[in-house]
């Protein structure tokens, strides 16, 4: 499957990642069929969102 992955400041990529799996009874897998960019998304690109770690595909 494809995921948007933070690789570093200014380096965000669309990559192939493993399919998600249910690990706990209260987990859910959600299929996204459409999305849009918000101005808040720029915090990840600029590196101003705390807790972002290179390789992170889900944010903090």
Fold and architecture overview:
The chain is built from one helix and two strands, in the order E-E-H. Helix content is 8%, strand content 22%. With 60 residues, it is mainly beta. The model has no long low-confidence stretch (mean pLDDT 83). It has a two-stranded antiparallel ribbon. 2% of the residues are buried. The chain has one domain.
Relevant terms:
22% strand; 60 residues; two-stranded antiparallel ribbon; mainly beta; 8% helix; 1 helix
Q: Can you describe this structure in just a few lines?
A:
The chain has 60 residues and is mostly beta strands.
- Percentage of residues in strands: 15-25%
Q: Report the count of strand segments.
A: 2
Distance between the termini: 21 Å
* Mean residue pLDDT: 83
> Strand sequence of the main sheet, in spatial order?
1-2
H-E order: EEH
Oligomer: single chain
Helical fraction: under 10%
Return residue spans where pLDDT drops below 50 for at least 5 consecutive residues: none
Number of domains: 1
How many helices? 1
Q: What is the radius of gyration?
A: 13 Å
Q: What structural category arises from helix and sheet content?
A: mainly beta
Shape: globular
How is the biggest beta sheet arranged?
A: 2 strands, antiparallel
